[in-house]
Design brief:
The structure is a homotetramer.
Chain A (H helix, E strand, L loop, with lengths): L4 E2 L4 E5 L6 E7 L9 H11 L16 E3 L3 E2 L2 E2 L4 E6 L9 H5 L7 H8 L15 H18 L5 E9 L2 E2 L7 H4 L12 H13 L6 E8 L13 H10 L4 E6 L10 H4 L3 E3 L5 E3 L7 E2 L2 E2 L4 E7 L9 E4 L5 E4 L9 H28 L1
Chain lengths: ~350, ~350, ~350, ~350
């Protein structure tokens, strides 16, 4: 209720600052007897971990997650799961200027204005470091979904646009996503993206991007209309990720340009006697409830605000200053947002799966 | 918690189906001693009311809101405000086919799949009729904002796109919004929109649109990071509106194409010694907290799913059918979503204003 | 979250003042396809209704409950159930003195101090009239419990003490409860209670009492440790009823005087191979989770604060006054609290039943 | 929402089992700029720590609390406060029998029945060890109350009854509470209590008790009627403590025996022109809202279920067994519940202070 937790029944609450001793979270509401170990969570954290290519920040964080509670003899017990990651790469340095200046595009000025105090070291609480715990909680959510949904739920994300360079959707290949440092599903775009990002990094600049996340094999019926529609909660989940400025479900903003005839997803009964949709403009959600089709969401990520070019700003004393952000930053934070988007989709679906089970059995 | 309420401290919960005896809501958490009467709520309901031009559904609903509690001698008492609107235009008719068929694009199939039962009359709970209570609750929220924020908060929305016809943003004039039946802020677009909509209506078709909502004079500091960021809650609020498929804050999806230099909103100290931003790509929110700039959000509304052209579908018996939706429908539901978008912005801001006051005094 | 709702998944929110046009509530989270009609709710309201004997207030309220939504063709649809009771017996009168005076033992002084405004007519929101909606919501909860728990859940309450006159527990007979105007389960106590209450009423005085509520056939497993223990939520539920000052589970305060040997409820396997407890000191709850034994709770109800004898007090102007409460009041509010206690037990169990189903399937 | 957190705005969520690597919690919603360090929390933990006299369990737990986040340069930042206590006294031992047997009076049987899995080591999640985190969170709540309420809020608890040995209330002296190992406020009772407890311990038995907690200087106005009444939330808070079976506010169950004349707390205006109550039967709460008088609550604690005398029970295989609980146990858990009661009062008041500030400014 106080802003640092997400979910109603599958609910996790995170804590920790970028440069404090540790970050952590509590995942509450996990069903019992679900197989879970640190080995189930670590791969997702490794995927998000910085420093894996020259296209992400060169900070080195081991991001070793520890399970402190809630798991006994390899299975969840139904009690809260405490997760902890110690911060190991806290470079000791002089924060002199940054401590008093508001970096444009960052949360410095609003945290200061809201709280009158601010842990300025590495962005403090507003650092993307917090997203590591989302990914850890997302790992728990995946375990829940896979245990409760026959056949498991497949949640995958990819970058579909780097700056203005959009992929060729016809060339989409999920196997490509982990074969390049951009989580790009279109092999033909990789070289262009690499050139663009090299130029951006060389300039000390940054660039935005678009991430698409798809959840397959989601059962029909998830979502609690009217205000906790599944798409409303996905929108909140994705918009809560650092630097995200837009969220779409299915055709998203393109749907505004369609006619009713174009937009309607027709239905038929297939050979096996099952309901089949002939298209998926809706992105798998109708009236706030999952339809059984793949759930498709997209999010727009703004460019990293930390850039080398000086920008006009002010400091806490009300003086005008020029701010130039040195340090190790992602030229495109959208890249590392890919596993975070997957995680937020996973926790949202796990929560609604339990909510649906509560009401409808 | 069960899906039909919105907000944490300023919280409203709605009930009611399209063709039941009444719809209503409870608004809880309203501060005491705020002037409020039915006359403060009715104008917003009138703005949303159908049948006001030939471009919206010809259903006639008086939508007279009654305050049943929580107001004493013209002021709120701090106790819950019960609001009720009786449904007066419930045409008695044979629902025969519609009762058993799933209209493509509608929530028929998912309600049926989720609940195994469905009030099919007029869309039941999934009808846009529910949004009348959002607008009523939004009226209460406006009263709260105006009482607690010096100078009041101005919340206005407009349609910025009808199908693929976007307005000329340079011609934006708020005074135009209520001067045409489309809530269009650009006088030069009105004629084109009218032609388009006449054609759409004549074809028994429908079209989508984009709505932009702007909140001015919002104090710096609203928003509860990390998961209840102000933009995350606005995204949820807007995405929960019927037919919305996308939400943007500030530059939204365009931000993905910018560089860090372009996107950064620089700051300076103005002549009065106050902080001033030189641009507003962020849409008034940084790190999930309002910055004092205007808050700008947009939402994409899909075309009305009720169209005259037959579409392929199935019925509750698993048989394939052709569905053709007769009746009185909005050719562009985006139009009537304009006051709803304002209302959802208002309730979100009122909630976060109280949350901010709780934590930060 | 704002104080006028109860429950997490089975959640109801009430509104309305004693002398406003109506009171009502929204029950959200009800599972679909559960048979429900006004006829299922009315008997519980009738049981609570005043004016049925000379031992309760002579106010006449028909308390006819209307279902406004959420039920279709005799069954719940999974959407929120709106309930409304119109206030019919609002005697028009001069509230002159009462409007400005704080009645000792009443919430007048604290409402005024908290809100700075107060609907003084008949106690406004703090009137026991609000409990009618608890009883209505409790009726919905009973329907849920009976539909989901094989064999149904039996929830019954009785008065076990009137002032210092305790029943003879050995004479407990549930059939007696509805055979006397005190919900007294011990036929041998009725005459004594009647004498006492006649004397109290003649004096214009009032007296307290104790109510015991028992829930049978509650499945093992309900309760969400650690903070939402089933007994913790029952304690909150009962303590939230007007005039309640104490709550016990099982042996309650007597447990403080026992040794571990006396208190331990031993277990065995019965002839059918089922777990059987040999005693029930725990009141059916261990570690916050129902054990399958009957759940037993008690609550202490203070004497009605409205009495004829003048009491020293102050008014809103800070002047000292003598207050004497005329009007139609219950000499023992404990009596009419009996069906309210049942209702609060029912809603708490229904909520935890859904919560358990969510987490444990 | 999932049971392991408490509070709406000042909200803490705990995790950890008795014999896991650590226990911890997240305190969310703390106002910014409040002085806080580990030194503010440790004394309360030390007060609760076992092994301080021969009257409590001889387990040795250092209970050193670490603040992992949310505090910067000695002050809270408004971000979540992560707290961690490593478990140091986890005796490695064979849990053979206990692993499969249900100890009477313990949560073994209900955890097993609810979850189908159970961390049996030292009681797992149902161990009173969890209360250490309540005490730590209570320390944060005290800091909040002292920072926001002029003059600070004084919260103190004492044991008022050991078994059937009640204190002489006329001899109440708060200074005595920390001068004996029983938190007994009546010096004349200490010797008798010591004799009784020595006998109990010698027998390997246990005994219950009653704890009273008093909060002074609580401002008028805290509490959110109707369902989140201050007394309702205190009742939940105290009833959620391990082994508590009853809760009273003010006169509690004695109020049931009073007449309206006896129970009414009369009011006057004192020499300074302030409202003064002439008695406090209500325990400082009227209509669910604090009245400015001391808040008085009591809780009944059952005897420790772990005793040496064999008790009849069953095991997870459905076989009947005799259970005899060896190990280091508190002969009267009521003693160590004293600082826990204080903590739960503190967190409840801190939460309602913020809630009141939100609604009423």
């Amino acid at each position: 209720m106080s802003g640092n937790g997400f979910g109603t029944l599958f609910r996790f609450t995170t804590f920790g600052e970028s440069h404090g001793p540790a970050i952590g979270c509590v995942v509450d509401g996990v069903p019992p007897r679900i197989p879970l170990s640190e080995a189930d969570l670590q791969p997702w954290l490794d995927k998000r971990r910085p420093g894996q290519s020259r296209h992400t920040t060169q900070r080195q964080e081991a991001d070793q997650v520890k399970i402190l509670s809630g798991v006994f003899e390899g299975k969840t017990t139904g009690t809260p799961i405490g997760l902890l990651i110690e911060n190991t790469d806290q470079r000791s340095k002089d924060y002199g200027e940054i401590a008093e200046q508001f970096r444009p595009g960052h949360a410095d000025v609003t945290y200061w204005g809201k709280y009158g105090i601010r842990d300025y070291r590495g962005g403090g609480r507003s650092s993307a470091r917090e997203t590591a715990m989302r990914v850890a909680a997302g790992g728990v959510a995946r375990a829940v979904l896979n245990a409760l949904v026959p056949g498991g739920v497949v949640i995958r994300a990819a970058m579909t646009q780097l700056g203005d360079l959009a992929i060729d959707r016809a060339a989409w290949d999920w196997d490509q996503v982990n074969a390049n440092p951009f989580f790009c599903p279109d092999a033909t775009s990789v070289a262009r993206w690499e050139d663009r990002l090299n130029a951006i990094r060389k300039d000390g600049s940054s660039i935005g991007g678009v991430v698409e996340v798809v959840a397959e094999n989601v059962p029909l019926g998830l979502g609690a209309p009217v205000y906790d529609k599944l798409d409303a909660d996905i929108a909140k989940a994705l918009m809560s990720i650092n630097a995200v400025k837009g969220v779409e479900i299915g055709d998203g903003f393109d749907a505004a340009t369609l006619t009713g005839e174009q937009n309607a997803d027709e239905m038929e009964i297939d050979e096996q006697g099952n309901l089949r949709f002939l298209s998926n403009h809706a992105g798998g959600i109708l009236g706030g409830i999952s339809s059984g089709q793949p759930i498709i969401a997209r999010m727009a990520v703004k460019p990293t605000s930390s850039i080398l070019t000086p920008r006009r700003s002010v400091d806490i004393h009300g003086k005008m200053v020029d701010v130039r952000t040195k340090g190790r930053h992602d030229p495109c934070v959208g890249i590392r947002a890919v596993p975070v988007a997957e995680a937020m989709m996973a926790v949202t679906l796990a929560d609604h799966l339990l909510r649906h089970r509560a009401q409808c059995g």
